[in-house]
Amino acid sequence: MNLFVFGYGYSSATLVRAHRDRFAQVHATVRSAAKAQSIAADGVTGRVFDGSTADDAIAADLAAADALLVSVPPDATGDPVLRRFGDVISAAPRLAWIGYLSTVGVYGDHGGGWVDETTPPDPASERSIRRREAEEAWLELGRSSGKAVHVFRLAGIYGPGQNALVNLREGTARRIVKPGQVFNRIHVEDIAGAVMASLDRPSAGAIYNVADDEPAPPQDVVAFAADLMGVPVPPDLPFDTAVLSPMARSFYGENKRVSNRKLKDELGYAFRYPTYREALRALFAAGDGRS
User: Fold this and answer.
1) What's the confidence (pLDDT) of residue 247?
2) Which residues fall within 8 angstroms of residue 259, CB to CB, at 6 or more apart?
3) Mean per-residue pLDDT for 266-289?
4) For position 1, what pLDDT does the model report?
5) 20 to 30 A Cα–Cα from 173, which one of 61, 128, 163, 277?
6) Taking 90 as the threshold, does the pLDDT of residue 53 lie above it?
7) What is the DSSP string of 29-46?
8) Is the pTM of this model over 0.85?
9) 81/73 Cα distance (integer angstroms)
10) C-alpha to C-alpha distance for 269 and 195, rounded to whole angstroms
């Protein structure tokens, strides 16, 4: 099986490194020629695509691909992959599985209530509105071309090198407290596992929430990480007085609990890290958060 990846970033690279033996060839796009050379160490042939400039070889790679993973965000005028390669993807003769990485942000705010894949999207932020439009554009490509498109709505991503332990060690962790606020999370290795489960059991047009079992207040995660490290727990910082960027503040404007039941029931996926506790223990044991 040949895999093509648009956007070789944190999540997609984790998937490829963990499952490289499943694929005969992997081609992936990055934004520079230097980066294209560097990913050869992962057994990946790099191609340059920055949203406008594109390597001439990409069309041929897509024609030979059996699976396509898209991890490129939409821009102000839509999805750059569809804009440049939509026709090529629709016509790709071997392409049988397409995965699009989206966000649980498309659900908007639900006052802390539960949402699942049957919940109508109601995105509030501009970036989530764009994501929802991109989701529908990919699903429409699937309907019109007969290819099996799958949408993965990802919770907040963390994992090696990107987690509360690292933030504490670097002195950037804050325990911002907004009563009743919870966030949804997913370890990057569970993103890889969920996508691979879909690849093994494709279902055209399927949408899956990829979030762990326990939506939790952000301050609880920081406190748990501090206890693991044996360092003082940062003081509470009330949300109303916290200095936040507009993007960071917008995250606190959405409060919901995201169900992963469909991922478990339909694909039989068993989470490697069901909650942040198992994940942070493993990350700390592996060295994250240590001097």
Assistant:
1) 86
2) 114, 115, 116, 209, 211
3) 98
4) 97
5) 128
6) no
7) EESSHHHHHHGGGGT-EE
8) yes
9) 9
10) 10
Architecture of domain 2-157+185-212+258-273: 3-Layer(aba) Sandwich (3.40)
Q: How far apart are CA 23 and CA 10, in angstroms?
A: 19
Q: Is 104 in contact with 256 (CB distance < 8 Å)?
A: yes
Give CA–CA dist 7/182, Å, rounded: 29
Nearest CA to 103 among 124, 84, 77? 124
Report the distance separating Cα 181 and Cα 174, nearest Å: 15
φ/ψ region of 290 (left if φ > 0, alpha if ψ in -120 to 50, else beta) reads: beta
Mind listing the pLDDT tens digit for each residue in 153-194? 999 999 999 999 999 999 999 999 999 999 999 999 999 999
Percent of the chain scoring above 70 in pLDDT: 100
* Residue-range domain boundaries for the chain: 2-157+185-212+258-273
Instruction: Give yes or no for residue 291 having a pLDDT over 80.
Output: no
Backbone torsion region of residue 11, taken as left when φ is above 0, otherwise alpha when ψ lies between -120 and 50, otherwise beta: alpha
Tell me what percent of the chain is helix, strand and coil, each rounded to the nearest 5.
Answer: 40, 20, 35
Interatomic CA distance for residues 75 and 96, integer angstroms: 26
